[in-house]
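Please check this record.
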Amino acid sequence: MQYEATSPENYISQVPEDRQPALKRLRKTIKENLPKDFEEGIIYKMIGYYVPHSVYPNGYHCDPKTPLPFMSFASQKNSVNLYHSGIYAKKELHDWFVNEYPKHSKRKLDMGKSCIRFKNMDEIPYDLIGELTRKMTCAEWIDIYETAIKKK
């Protein structure tokens, strides 16, 4: 589902009440572990973490007015989805996450290229998400991103 939110707090206030505690905890986990220079806000109608224009003036190549996206999360119809661009862009990070996930959850990993879906709010592996959040610095994400767009 999409929400017309003006802030992360406003976004969380619009989701169904039974999901709000999980989203609050997910947000807190990410914020406590987010490397310096990333910022939090609403991006693509989700709570997002991105490289602000003050750090990376070029912005996102598809729309330079948009700051460079890094990770985000959203409440969807059947799940809470976490999107992490680093998992998609860096094979070692992807492989690390896939290997670590079973150590933190009894559920089968439900994952796309950069999307991790959590259908049970009581089984979100917050410690693992915190560790994932710490794994890539802002400078490393910019380097990976610039290398990828130069190949296009």
User: Anything to note?
Assistant: The chain has a mean pLDDT of 96. DSSP finds six helices and five strands in the chain. The first helix runs from residue 8 to 14.
